[in-house]
Amino acid sequence: MIHINIFSFIFLIILLMVITGTIVFYFIRYLDRSRKQDAETYAQDLIKRAKQDAENNRREVEIELKEQAMQQKEKIESEMRLARKENHEKERILNKRQDMIDKQVDDLRKQEKLVESTQRKLLEKIEENKSRSIELQKTIDTQKQILHELSGLSKEAATKLLLSNLETELHAEAGALILKNEKIVTEQCEQQARNILLLALQRYAASHTAEATTSSIDIPNDDMKGRIIGREGRNIRAFEKVTGVDVIIDDTPGVVIVSAFDAIRREVARLTLNRLIVDGRIHPSRIEEIYQETNREIQSFIQRAGTEACQEVDVLHLHDRIVNLLGRLYFRTSYSQNVLRHSIEVAFLSGLIAVELGLNERLARRCGLLHDIGKAADHELEGGHPKIGADILKRYGEPFEVVQAALGHHDNPRINNPYTIIVATADACSASRPGARRETLEHYVKRMEELETIAMEFPNVEQAFAVQAGREIRILVNSGQTTDESAAKTCRDVVLALNERLQFPGEIKVTVIRETRTTEIAK
């Protein structure tokens, strides 16, 4: 009984599980069918919405295409209207030109008729003139025949006699006329040149006191000499090494002399030594310190002097290097005449002369101010200051007239460049003013004689002439006893002798001339 109940219970449980599984199966199947229906419904909704969106997009695209078509149509119509307007304007211009052409054609027809009428009249006059010429020729021939019969001369003899008389009269008249006009022109030119120079010199007034540069330095007592020399000469050696000058200390009381070929270097050394004497601390490091300060001050002063000179003469837009070289001229003298003041004076005189001649005053002043710029660098470069100055000015882009004025203001100025002649004239006027240069007439004549005497000492030299105010010496040698090679050697020997025996500023050009002349006598 108990076993039956257990089996019944197990069977019941199995039955319940089967029933439950069947119910769960059908429930799951029902849920799947419901989900499937919901998915189909959702998909249909998506398809419907997609179709609706596609329809809306199609309508928007159609509307946008219609708007673009309308805009394109309006643009094409606007371009067509503009083209029609341009065509109308061109048509109007063409019609106007056609009217002008028609008018010109009518005028040409009228002129052709006038020309034809004038041509007919000219032909008639030509025919008339021909007939008159024939009659005149007949009359002339008749008169010539009568004259030949009366004079008893042939045609050739009469012509020759007449031409001879005319030639004699013309030669006499031409010679007299040339002499007369030459004298008048010479007098007028001299008077005009004299007036221009006098007017320029009177309009410009400047001081012409000769400046004397000194290299001597006063010291308070002779004990200072020992301090300058230093222990075993270390101070003076350091000073000479730093400044590049020679310090001369001798028995002269209260004076120390500074010697140097470069005027700027000498001035820097002089100021440095003065400051050391005032400061009292003299040793190598202090010497170098004071020298550096003084050198900077001198360089600043040089640049300022050049700038002030340009402003005084009203010459602008110069390169900084040229302005610096102008300032260096402040420390350069020529026969004790300050070269910077001399250049400023030449600039003013050149400008005044250019005004009188109707030329460019600013360009003339520029030429005059820069004509001696080579003197600021002739201690550093080889050659005379005209060539050095011309090279410097050409390198920094100065005008052709300025370069030529610097190159030719001493020797053989070019006639085709008037500014070179003006600068040479102003330079001569500035140098020859009373008091401008310290050299006296006796010293000048003596120097000229010394130049010629030295040249005459060499063999085969026949004549020697000092020209260009002693800047050139021309030597004539015997062509029969001298060859080209020996003439070149003589020129070199004269240069060496001048360098050894004379002291002179700048340079002296030596020219040896050897000429061969052949003379025959016709008998």
Record the SSE blueprint.
Blueprint: H1 2-151, H2 155-203, E1 216-218, H3 223-229, H4 234-243, E2 246-248, E3 255-259, H5 263-279, H6 284-313, H7 320-328, E4 333-334, E5 337-338, H8 339-357, H9 361-369, H10 385-395, H11 400-408, H12 418-432, H13 441-456, E6 461-467, E7 472-477, H14 484-501, E8 509-513
Parallel strand pairs: 7-8
Antiparallel strand pairs: 1-3, 2-3, 4-5, 6-7
Helix pairs in contact: 2-8, 4-6, 5-6, 6-7, 8-9, 8-12, 9-11, 9-12, 10-11, 11-12
Summary keywords:
mainly alpha; flat; 8 strands; 3-stranded antiparallel sheet; 523 residues
Structure description:
The chain has 14 helices and 8 strands. The protein is mainly alpha-helical and 523 residues long. The protein has helices at 2-151, 155-203, 223-229, 234-243, 263-279, 284-313, 320-328, 339-357, 361-369, 385-395, 400-408, 418-432, 441-456, 484-501; strands spanning 216-218, 246-248, 255-259, 333-334, 337-338, 461-467, 472-477, 509-513. It has a 3-stranded antiparallel β-sheet with strand order 1-3-2, with helices on one face. It has a 3-stranded mixed β-sheet with strand order 6-7-8, with helices on one face. Helix 9 crosses helix 12 (418-432).
